[in-house]
Amino acid sequence: MHSYRLIQIGDIHYSKAIAAIFKDSKDQAFPSELALKTTIGPYRQAIRSITKARDSQKGINGVIFCGDLSTFGNYAEYQEAVKSLKKSLSLDDKSKWNNGAIIVVPGNHDIDRKKIDHSSDNYKEKFKDLEKAWSNNGCEFFKYDDIDPTITNIIDNTNISIFPLNSCIGCGEKRCYPEDIRDAFHNILKDYAKKKGDDDSFKLLGEDLDTPAFLEKDINSICDYITDNSTNSVPILVSHHNLLPQTIPRFDMYTELLNSGFVRSRLGKCGAPILYCHAHIHSDPIEKIIDIKNNGHPIITVSAPKITEGFNILDIKFNNEGTPLGCTVEMYRISNDGHTDLVHKNISFVSPKDSVLFLSSNSKDLIAEIPSGVPFRYKQLVSHLTKAQDQIDEEDFVKCLIEAYWFGLLEINNIEKDNNYWHVEKVVP
Questions:
Q1: In what order do the strands lie in the sheet containing 62-65?
Q2: What CATH architecture applies to the domain 353-426?
Q3: pLDDT (tens digit, 9 = 90+) per residue, 113-139?
Q4: What is the mean pLDDT of residues 180-185?
Q5: CATH architecture of the region 2-170+214-349
Q6: Which of 55, 151, 71, 136 lies closest to 103 in space, CA to CA?
Q7: Taking residues 364-392, what's their average pLDDT?
Q8: Is the pLDDT score of 223 beyond 90?
Q9: Which residues of the chain form CATH 1.10.10?
């Protein structure tokens, strides 16, 4: 079995994140410095946990930042966030990340709307300061106009392809009211911003008038690449906005991606399972989109929460022949006592019917010997099969069980733990 592990970090909102600490503060006069020494902030705990995961025995092959490092388009805050992340996570030392991918995409809160030239149709200008913040710190990770994939070969003819995808093309742009009122209305909004300050003005000028969207040419280029390289490849798209609407009804203007339906339809016909990683909604759903009519491959959308609430590790699994099997989303979540809790969610890329094509003959033979509907502890199953065969190679047997699990032929409780803790049961068709 082969594995590729990638940390996914959601909205940071740096100035708010570093100010947050775990406390129930009824006495506003209590010394703030003393309060800081008696508890930990969720941001610091998240950084500790990310570093610990990176340096663990399993290791990490890369990290993706899904946008919104700052709040209200504050460039000084964005620069400070970049400087802090570089230092605390050693982003400039790629050896700590197994020389893997480090990808940063913009979020709608990163854009300084005061600097947008509404008389120009150059949608890229508003991202250049963000790119400069990274390059000034010796890091060339920020992506806003480059969708070329970062490709990592897992084994022969098998790879991970990570695409940065800018969903903020329309963010901060001026709405096209009728020409006779357009300029007057825009001036009213500017005056409102001056009077109300950043918080209130960003809610009106930023969220209400956001128009998140992808460039059509970017989607075409990505789909063409995936279609041409779909065999034994797992494409990962890194973006800020969500493809599907959030679960809580949102009464607002232009909060969803304008062309998300077009994107879902195109990606579903590319001939490969796709991981779409995003943030923006400050929650962490994991959803699978399949176009059943067109026998499409799944698009699995994985949302990361705010960094003060945790982060994800995507652990992508391949069998020994290089077939992508699925992804374990390790959900690290920060609790109120400063502890980092961990929950595993497994998503398969394949279905039981695919086992005819991809399951190894050794796995097929072993699975055939397991009775249906009978739960076994791992050691019990080894004993049962040893009686049925002359001998059994436990290392190969474990690989066969894991492969059959991802194909949906077996249920294995506690699969994230040592195999001695497994409870195995054959799935009845």
A1: 101-104, 62-65, 2-9, 310-318, 324-334, 340-348
A2: Orthogonal Bundle (1.10)
A3: 777 776 677 788 899 999 999 999 999
A4: 73
A5: 4-Layer Sandwich (3.60)
A6: 151
A7: 82
A8: yes
A9: 353-426
